[in-house]
Amino acid sequence: MSGPGRRRRWSPAVRAAAGGVLLVSLGAEPAAAHAVDNGAMPAPPWLLAYLGGFAVLATALALRARWLRARHLVSVADDLGATERDDGAAGPPPAVGPGNVVGLVLLVLVVVAAIVGPDEGAANIAPVAVLIVWWVGLPMLCLLAGDVMRAVNPFVAVVRLVERAGGDRRTPAPPPPAWVPAAFLAAFAWFFVAYHRPGSPRAVAVLVVAYSAAAVAAGLRWGSRWLTTGEGFGALSAAISSVAPVRRSPAPPGTGAVMAVWLTSVAFDALSGTPWFEDVVADRLGWSRTVVLTIGFAWTLAVVAAVFLAALALGGRGRGQAAAAFGVVLVPLAAGWFVGHDLTLLLFEGQNFIALLSDPIGRGWDLLGTITQTIDYGLAREPWVAWVQVLAVGAGHVGAVVVAHDRALALLPRRSAAATSLALAAAAAASVVAAALLVLG
Hints:
This protein has 441 residues and is mostly helical. It is 67% helix and 0% strand. It has helices at 3-26, 45-66, 98-116, 125-145, 148-152, 154-165, 180-193, 201-222, 224-230, 232-241, 255-271, 275-281, 286-314, 320-325, 330-356, 383-411, 414-438.
């Protein structure tokens, strides 16, 4: 095919996708997501929902008419029908670079601050470092720079040190099931959205120490190379990098499960801030509240997984291997939810992190001269914040439709590919409606 012919085949789908996202964005006013609720709201969420659904379905129809051959937009480690799967256990162990050492040092410093500092989130840097800079900031950075976790993974440094001490003679055990990274990430997500005191430095210390011990133990059992994508944040970082402008890794095995957990954490965080859910929780406090939130988190995860699997089943691809092959479809979709919901949280609480750098353990210090800095919540009124939120949600769902169509063409016969891609597009349309109502509403 010549260059001009290829451009004619791309342009209708690209125009439909861009036009749909533009329609969604035109309805936006300055807004703050539910993560930081200061009263600012976008233009009617029902309008954004209608426009978002139209953008998704119009993109799907344009792709079906014009995008007739797979372009292999993303690299996936466990393609349907592959004879071998790169599960990360084979091959040479990863090198430990300066970033891994810095990551380990920072991890230790955060744990020390959480233990020796005051048990008040406002006066201790540990909660904001873990729950804002790490939980929210790391995925945002991966969207821009690729597989960042691979370069700073602190657990790899510890496991490689032990492996070298043993002369690298130990043979790793066979790799675990692909859902293990999702289980790691779910533990962290549960703390963020369901535990009743996520801002307590002592609770953060317990979380980080327990998580680190489990990650190191898993790395010692299955090998340091597996750890780069087998630990929750390693898998999340690698999966995000598969659709980032700078790609460093293919989407690892278990990407679908990891994305389902990540999407659930965002969706449930948004849902738990609604008046309806506040009525469900009522006046429960302490562990009673945690139990209700845990049930809600599990229920939301079940709904997310059921919608995805039902879409594959409608397309004739509902079995486990197909779900693994199409799991990467959830990456742009979940990223859209995440940026739309948590951007304001990072912008605002990131300012608090800068202030706490001067007094990380609440001793009255002002090491960097930033302790008097206050959070500027007026940032939520900046027009660009709303544009980024709305465009992220729209582009994420349109991107999911494009990836689904391309994956279907790459893996399936033409007729089966059409049915599968349209079923996934219908699920994406339902998702963008939910995102508009929960995240942008």
